[in-house]
Specification:
Strand order of the largest sheet: 3-2-7
Shape: globular
Structural class: alpha+beta
Largest sheet: 3 strands, antiparallel
Helix content: 25-40%
Number of domains: 2
Number of helices: 15
Oligomer: single chain
Length: 509
């Protein structure tokens, strides 16, 4: 397929030629990359090496999403553009998928029959409702309802059957018996929502080198006004904000061997970092594959994550999750007695294919924005501080995607996500105490950092981490513990000027 003409396509084509240039012959540096020739592996290994010179930007660092990088003006739509190297036909599919992503679903029965099926319990009426402008969710402001932050629910296994299902990964957690796997505050007319929750905070003072002080806010969640009776006494609750959508297709295109080679679950090299792979079942084949999406890396593909969001967030059934009642449990009888939106003339589920296919395609092809200020001296000093503090032990700067990726636009791209997509123990401060699959109650997937500096531009806030507790990037760093404690302490020890440079670097991503 030909890329769309433009500067991104030209740079991407040059990058492909550069990667394909004749390398020096040497021992095979990337034996796990079975998609590449020996010459490709030598060249890719060189491209992926860490810099030693922080006086200037690395080649193609501006194009952090490869040839698909969006170089449009960084405004409120900065995270909503299509990959720049899509074909004309793919751009059309992207736009149709965008319309479905923004589509407001209605309760059944409705005169807008193709939009029937909302809920009956839900957190939002559209995908865009949580992922506003395809960006990052936040905790509710005072007086607001929580929309882009919700609560995951589960309980420890109670029976041998549940323990076996967890061991075999037929399920990754045991839903709360009455309220299911997710707490939904909203409901269709005639039905009460599951309840509300309040967020209280307690302050933690953190002294910084140079006489500065940071004040963190630890959130405390209190559920109230339960609509279906008491919860199980051992209920585990984990708040989650909606993550940004940029570059998901490129993450999916990273060769699994590149993730496996980064994993060190027993810390064999003794560096204190013991990232591990999340293994989950592919719902299509039943085989174990790498989970690389979601805060706990519990989803293997974008389609799987999309189906889960349709079901849990909006209450819409899909071919992958065909229950028309979403997260309504059998204990919520009034919920399951309400009409649903499945209609024989439109297909066997409320959002049949091609709806799922189009929304998945849209989600796979949201472009990563171009870096800003890559040659700025302060940004380069901050980049050096980022490397020297050890942040790259988890926030792996770059990959070259697989030549076997499903979409040619995602193949053989040099990308800069700044994540290893592995599970890491982040310490007691960030622990939610709620295991999911291979992730313990203290472990989280390393989130990618590309686009993070445009959060305020796109979403009018600067809230970060899995529950949005950090009010700025410095607070996000200071919440790091566990395997990241040493890197966090190195940032605390920086001079105020160097710490500001580090933040400038993060804001440039």
């Amino acid at each position: 397929m030909k890329p769309v003409p433009g500067s991104g396509a030209v740079l991407g084509a040059f990058l492909c030629m550069w990667l394909a240039a004749e390398p020096a012959l040497s021992a095979d540096p990337l034996p796990h990359r079975n998609d590449l020739s020996a010459q490709d592996r030598a060249k890719v290994s060189k491209v992926l090496s860490f810099p030693t010179d922080f006086e200037r930007a690395e080649p193609f660092e501006l194009m952090q999403g490869g040839a698909g990088t969006s170089q449009r003006r960084p405004n409120r739509d900065a995270l909503s553009h299509a990959n720049a190297n899509l074909t004309f036909e793919e751009q059309h599919l992207f736009k149709v998928g965008n319309g479905l992503f923004k589509k407001l679903w209605a309760s059944s029965p409705s005169s807008t029959q193709a939009s029937d099926g909302l809920g009956p319990l839900y957190n939002a009426r559209s995908c865009q409702g949580c992922h506003l402008k395809d960006g990052r969710g936040r905790p509710p402001r005072e007086g607001d309802e929580a929309v882009s932050l919700f609560l995951r629910l589960s309980i420890p296994p109670q029976t041998d059957e549940q323990r076996q299902a967890l061991t075999q990964k037929d399920i990754l957690s045991v839903p709360e018996p009455t309220y299911g796997g997710q707490f939904q505050s909203f409901a269709v007319p005639g039905l009460a929502g599951e309840g509300r929750f309040d967020i209280e905070t307690e302050e933690i003072v953190v002294p910084l080198n140079g006489g500065e002080t940071a004040i963190l806010q630890r959130p405390i969640y209190k559920i109230r006004d339960l609509g279906f009776g008491d919860m199980h006494p051992e209920t585990l609750v984990s708040p989650r904000v909606a993550p940004p959508m940029s570059g998901l297709g490129l993450i999916q295109a990273i060769h699994p061997g590149d993730l496996e080679v980064l994993a060190d679950p027993e810390d064999a090299d003794g560096d204190g970092i013991s990232g591990k792979i999340s293994r989950v079942r592919d719902p299509q084949t039943g085989n174990f594959v790498i989970g690389r999406f979601g805060w706990k890396a519990s989803n293997p593909t974008i389609r799987t994550q999309t189906a889960g969001a349709f079901s849990g967030d909006i209450g819409i059934s899909t071919p992958d999750k065909p229950d028309n009642y979403g997260d309504c449990t059998e204990a919520q009888t009034t919920c399951r007695e309400l009409p649903h939106g499945e209609q024989a003339k439109l297909g066997p589920t409320e959002a049949p294919d091609p709806v799922m296919e189009l929304v998945t395609f849209y989600s796979e092809n949201l472009a990563v924005p171009a870096r800003r200020d890559v040659e700025d001296p302060e940004v380069l000093r901050g980049k050096q501080a980022f490397y020297e503090a050890g942040c790259t032990s988890c926030h792996q700067p770059k990959f070259v995607t697989s030549r076997d990726a499903d979409n040619p636009a995602h193949r053989f791209q040099l990308i800069w996500p700044y994540s290893d997509f592995l599970l890491h123990d982040m310490g007691e401060g960030l622990a939610d105490g709620r295991p999911v699959g291979d992730a313990s109650g203290r472990e989280w997937r390393t989130p990618p950092l590309w686009g993070i500096g445009l959060t305020e531009t796109v979403n009018n806030h600067t809230r970060f981490l899995h529950d949005g507790r950090a009010r700025n990037l410095l607070e996000a760093v200071l919440w790091h513990g566990g395997e990241a404690q040493q890197a966090r302490d190195a940032v605390v020890a920086l001079s105020p000027a160097d710490r500001q440079s580090l933040l400038r670097f993060l804001e440039s991503l």
